[in-house]
Amino acid sequence: MTRYRVAVHIVPRRGLLDPQGKAVADALRSLGFPGVEDVHVGRHIVAEVQAADAASAEQSVRAMCAKLLANPVTEDFEIAGVNAA
Amino acid sequence: MTRYRVAVHIVPRRGLLDPQGKAVADALRSLGFPGVEDVHVGRHIVAEVQAADAASAEQSVRAMCAKLLANPVTEDFEIAGVNAA
């Protein structure tokens, strides 16, 4: 078993309202960043897992996202990277 | 002016307590993922900004992180990517 560090991005699904992103964009514009057009706020999760190889580390993190980490109604997730830790 | 999409990772600073990450790791282990050793939960922010070039887009997003998006006491940020949108 090797230790892998798997990074995941969980982002609000495109086309759904993203009130947090809108609030951040409005705050940035009023703080002196007029060039901000849009902001999306998601989560960046790094999981350190023991697995036999990188493929099974990725597969188990996908299962974690489906089961706990992401809300399947409102969010999408993508595996951003798998590295031996 | 071109529209750039700048992705940022904001993560809890190493060495500080990360109660959210610890709670997620405990929940995953009790949900049937015994291989989970550690979890860190940060934010993944995508900002779409108007800028003259990629370097100035990145620079303005760094300023946004320092001013609003990241907590300089407890968090670190890194620019994950700059792409023309």
Structural features, described:
- The structure is a homodimer of 85-residue chains.
- Chain A is an alpha+beta fold and 85 residues long.
- Chain A has one domain: Mth169, Chain: A (2-Layer Sandwich).
- Helix content of chain A is 33%, strand content 44%.
- Chain A contains 2 helices and 3 strands.
- Chain A has a 3-stranded antiparallel β-sheet with strand order 2-1-3.
- The mean pLDDT of chain A is 94.
- Strand 2 of chain A pairs antiparallel with strand 2 of chain B.
The gist of it:
The first copy, chain A, is 33% helix and 44% strand.
In the CATH hierarchy, the third-tier topology of chain A is known as Mth169, Chain: A
Radius of gyration of chain A: 16 Å
Total of DSSP H or I helical runs spanning 4+ residues of chain A: 2
Gross geometry of chain A? elongated
- Uncertain stretches of 5 or more adjacent residues of chain A: none
Average pLDDT value of chain A? 94
Question: In percent terms, what proportion of residues of chain A is strand?
Answer: 35-45%
Biggest interface, chains and residue tallies: A-B, 34 and 34 residues
Quote the distance from N terminus to C terminus of chain A: 12 Å
CATH level 4 superfamily of chain A: Phosphoribosylformylglycinamidine synthase subunit PurS
CATH architecture designation of chain A: 2-Layer Sandwich
- Give the spatial strand order of the biggest sheet of chain A: 2-1-3
CATH class placement of chain A: Alpha Beta
Give the strand tally of chain A: 3
Kindly state the percentage of residues in helix of chain A: 25-40%
* Largest sheet properties of chain A: 3 strands, antiparallel
